[in-house]
């Protein structure tokens, strides 16, 4: 367990507008410290939904990798990525490549997959000069704040993700599936209930229907768990959206989301979802050496615009299968 002084520091840093913060001092060996308190940290993530550990003094990618491996024995290899990442080590990546002046709105990592991370591990090597926080929002709270009829529809129908892979925008086919072999990609799609269609230019279009609401596999909480707003056309900067539609047409956008029956989702609904997220968002600016653990099912996360160099290492752990957290869609 954490020592009494560390527990008091954590309890004292449970502020309504910030993630749970554990402030340390005098840590000489971050890897050894994490190994000693691993179970307590993981228990805190279950209790609070996330925890930011400050004062470890993580110095380089090798040390961060060692800390991640203490916290989770099996790090996931990313599949179906929507944007490219730098690979540091197997299962350890940079944050997603995304323009620094644009936000990445709230989402649950890989929530469109049949197998997704139960926990996200993040560590900061270089903090930006301004902005760039990994903000979070509690998904049961978000769910409770949404209109009942909208929740009911998404609970009954789920949501639909459409993707058009190309070599110009977002993750390439090879980056998303880990191979360029068509037969292997088709086999993966069939196994994961992804409809697919090869395009004459070699591109790939896919459709996959997923649940929007799940039950947490440990606590049983009902959680708003999806990327409906994040990957929808109406969340894009208006100029970017107009450019992409001009380039690829409305049906060929790199990604878009719909109701589970295929109906478009109105701009007003996407605005509402993002407003509810914003009303329940908490944030703490990164400092170099920080470690953050996020329960990926209970807690949505975002990345805010920033200025200056920002280097965050990411790992995905504790793989969870969708079938372990839901009732079948109608």
Q: What does this molecule look like?
A:
- The structure is a single chain.
- This protein is of the alpha+beta class and 330 residues long.
- It has two domains: 4-101 and 110-137 and 284-319, Clavaminate synthase-like (Double-stranded beta-helix, 4-Layer Sandwich), CATH 3.60.130.10; 141-275, Double-stranded beta-helix (4-Layer Sandwich), CATH 3.60.130.10.
- The protein is 29% helix and 27% strand.
- It contains nine helices and 19 strands.
- The strands form five sheets. It has a seven-stranded mixed sheet with strand order 1-2-16-6-19-4-3.
- It is globular, with a radius of gyration of 20 Å.
- The mean pLDDT is 93.
Protein traits:
single chain; 330 residues; alpha+beta; Double-stranded beta-helix; seven-stranded mixed sheet; 19 strands; 29% helix; oxidoreductase activity; AlphaKG_dependent_hydroxylases; TauD-like_sf; TauD/TfdA-like
CATH class of the largest domain equals Alpha Beta
Helix tally equals 9
| Number of separate strands | 19
Average the pLDDT over all residues and give the rounded result: 93
Please outline the major beta sheet.
7 strands, mixed
Q: How much of the sequence is in beta strands?
A: 25-35%
What is the fold named in CATH at topology level of the largest domain? Double-stranded beta-helix
Q: List the uncertain runs.
A: none
Helix/strand-derived category reads alpha+beta
Please give a quick description of this structure.
This protein has 330 residues and is α+β, with helices and mostly antiparallel strands.
């Amino acid at each position: 367990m954490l020592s009494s002084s560390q527990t008091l520091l954590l309890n004292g840093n449970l502020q309504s507008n910030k993630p749970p913060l554990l402030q340390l001092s005098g840590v000489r060996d971050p890897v050894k410290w994490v190994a000693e308190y691993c179970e307590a940290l993981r228990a805190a993530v279950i209790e609070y939904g996330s925890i930011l550990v400050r004062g470890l003094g993580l110095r380089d990618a090798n040390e961060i990798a060692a800390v991640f491996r203490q916290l989770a024995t099996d790090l996931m290899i990313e599949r179906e990525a929507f944007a490219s990442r730098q690979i540091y080590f197997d299962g350890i990546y940079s944050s997603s490549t995304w323009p620094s002046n644009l936000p990445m709105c709230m989402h649950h990592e890989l929530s469109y997959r049949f197998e997704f991370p139960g926990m996200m591990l993040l560590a900061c090597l270089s903090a930006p000069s301004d902005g760039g926080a990994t903000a979070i929002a509690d998904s049961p709270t978000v769910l409770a704040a949404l209109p009942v009829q909208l929740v009911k529809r998404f609970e009954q129908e789920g949501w639909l993700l459409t993707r058009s892979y190309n070599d110009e925008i977002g993750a390439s086919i090879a980056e998303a599936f880990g191979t360029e072999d068509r037969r292997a990609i088709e086999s993966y799609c069939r196994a994961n209930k992804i409809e697919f269609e090869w395009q004459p230019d070699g591109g790939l279009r896919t459709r996959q229907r997923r649940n929007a609401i799940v039950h947490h596999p440990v606590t049983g909480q009902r959680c708003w768990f999806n990327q409906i707003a994040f990957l929808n056309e109406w969340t894009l900067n208006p100029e970017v959206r107009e450019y992409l539609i001009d380039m690829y047409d409305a049906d060929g956008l790199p990604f878009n989301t719909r109701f589970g029956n295929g109906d478009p989702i109105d701009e007003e609904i996407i605005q509402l979802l993002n407003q509810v997220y914003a009303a329940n968002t908490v944030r703490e600016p990164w400092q170099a050496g920080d470690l953050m653990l996020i329960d990926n099912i209970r807690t949505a996360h975002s990345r805010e615009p920033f200025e200056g160099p920002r280097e965050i290492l990411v790992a995905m752990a504790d793989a969870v299968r969708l079938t372990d957290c839901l009732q079948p869609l109608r």
